[in-house]
Specification:
Elements: E1 4-11, E2 15-17, H1 30-40, E3 45-49, H2 50-59, H3 72-82, E4 85-88, E5 99-102, H4 107-116, E6 121-124, H5 126-134, E7 140-146, E8 154-155, E9 166-173, E10 179-185
Parallel strand pairs: 1-6, 1-7, 3-4, 3-6, 4-5
Antiparallel strand pairs: 2-8, 7-10, 9-10
Helix pairs in contact: 1-3
Length: 212
Amino acid sequence: MNRIVTSISLSLDGFFEGPDHDIDWHTVDEEVHQHFNDYFRTMGGFVEGRVTYELMEEFWPTADQDPANEGPMAEFAGIWRDMPKFVFSRTLESVGPNATLLHEVDPEQVRGLRDAASGDLAVGGADLLESFRRADLIDEYRIYVHPVILGRGRRFFRDAEDRQPLRLVETRTFGNGVAMLRYETVRAGPRRRGVRRWPRRRRTPTRRWARR
């Protein structure tokens, strides 16, 4: 069964972009970029919001025509062109080649796209991902922690009413210090008959030692 996955590059203190929307602190060398290519070429489609789509579409369709872009960069240009894209936007009236424009996040429609795709769907864009997360549509998180503390900027994960349990399924450390943490979403299944659920233990107050 296909999944809906997301890949997120974060600073150690949880920011995905700096105070001026800068991402020049992303540590993407040839090893990391090749890893992204090998992963993304297996996808069944890219799912993106307007901002992310426009940034990607402005650069990648012709990136391999520039002699300065070689190796993994030139390779990803072909991956981008060939990959089906689903763009969510209330303001765009049209999108480029190999792309489908959608205006609202309808969970049933998104699940239909997932099931009909040739592989997993990769979601990009902070605002769109937040909508997907609140609709319980994200099956897997790939967190790439870059070796930097920004101190300020825009945090990727926003406040939420409920906790979301996750299961760690893979880790990888790259030579440049980037660390990947891959988590699966843990969803509550139906209660099995005869299985005892232990009550939650009450938190024991921490003993506070008096100062002498």
